[in-house]
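Q: Can someone sanity-check these two? First one:
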Amino acid sequence: MLKVKGIYKSFNENEVLKGIDLEIKEGEVYGLIGANGAGKTTLFNIIAQVLQANSGEIYIDETQIKNMNDLSQKIGYVIDNPSMFEYMNAYEYLDFIYSPSNKTKVEVLSRSKEILKLVGLDNVGTKQIKSFSRGMKQRMGIAAGLIFEPQLILMDEPSSALDPEGRFEVLNIIKDLKKQGKTIILSTHILNDIERACDRVGLLINGKIVVEGSITDVLARYNQSVLKISCAGEDAEKIKNSVKEKKLSKSVEITTDGIEIAFSGNENKKQIIKTLLEKDIDFNEITLKRNTLEEIYLMESKGGKK
């Protein structure tokens, strides 16, 4: 669906993107993670032909995109804090945005109603945008980005102005779009939303994608060698005593919801679990302790796994 090959972009002497390669399949939701100034918006602007790269190539469905005319409304772009003609009402603004489509007034109104319902603004279509809250304006920006029914949707911080309920609704919009077969690149600082919404993720650090893969694979790649056991406090003490008695771990820590036991290799891990079963200690769950996406990003930005 989308191929990004060797994209470089500098502003004066500041090299922002240093050879970005991406390949995103049709119907995939891809999460792009990066700090402020990492180049996420710059990359989005280059894909959307708002900016020109110093070098590199963009392909959509194997067709090279060289300027905005090549896009032919294939891309929807949802930005943080969108700028709009606020004297217009929602229907008027969508009619203005949709005017290059050569649709009839009836078709435009029908599509506008459909898209406003999707973003939860179906009851304010005749109200002026200047009366909207920032969260409502954010939804309006999402509606404008989707009005042309694009194949590829770039979403740059789409839920930054929204409360938890609004964020949940945006995630549902993304899930609905995925069901329709849309391809989405999502950039957000709310990494929990990336974990919930995305199929794959890329970490953009110092102008390069340094880690990429499915959410499951990336999280598994950074598993810690620690068993996390959920149990009651008294059972945690029993587990701690049993593990220390057999000298199975050098690090055992009781937590608010159980106990964490460091292990060194699969055989040691099996011995710890075997001990719990032999001692008939009551526990609810055993899992590997995992780093969150945020922890992984911070780790990589400081030089990678230790």
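And here is the second, same format, sequence then tokens:
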Amino acid sequence: MSPVLLFDFDSTLIQDEGLDILFQRSLRDAPDREERVRAFQELTDQGMAGELRFEDSLARRLEHLVAHRSLVEEVGAELASRLSPSVERNRGFFRERAERHGIHVLSGGFRELIEPAATTLGIPPSRIHAHRFRYAADGAVLGLDPETPLARGGKPLAVEEMGLDPAKTWMVGDGATDLEVRELGLVSTFVAFAENRTRSSVTSRADQVVHSMEELLELLSNHS
């Protein structure tokens, strides 16, 4: 029996880090845009590599973000066109597996940025496990919603609340938080997805490393 697959989103299903793109777009024509974007991306990389607690990385990035719901929606639509090349080539796999409830998105990113891309792959909102933004009455982004499992306990709590059998579940992603799910015994296998980013602190401890969806499909075929 094929395992349930938990896919990370940023730098896995899509080529980019969604929050980084949102921050870039929020700056528009700011004169110090490039410098601020580099500093923001450095915080992202530190969190994803495990050099900085992901929660701390996210909190520090959100302190610098000034955005509106309309921009969040605009960037979400943009990210739907930025699927990783091998994910784009294998849309059929996602749609087929999604129909059989075999795929979830598990992300430290934000649902509003994820849902348009997930929809194009046939993954319903009920199987997206991510943060949500908190908004002011005028639509300004205030930060993250503290009530989601991701906000309360990160990816481990989100996986626990899914109620999946660890022996029949794989995690596929590029970051330290994806590796953590495996090291806590919440999934049987962690596959480091290195098509877009290769983080040696993550790949060196992964059960498997793949550089494309085709390589992942081969692993799944051998597993079956």
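A (reply): Looked at the second one. Residues 21 and 33 are 12 Å apart (CA to CA). The beta strands are 4-7, 103-110, 128-131, 133-135, 141-144, 169-173, 189-193, 208-210.
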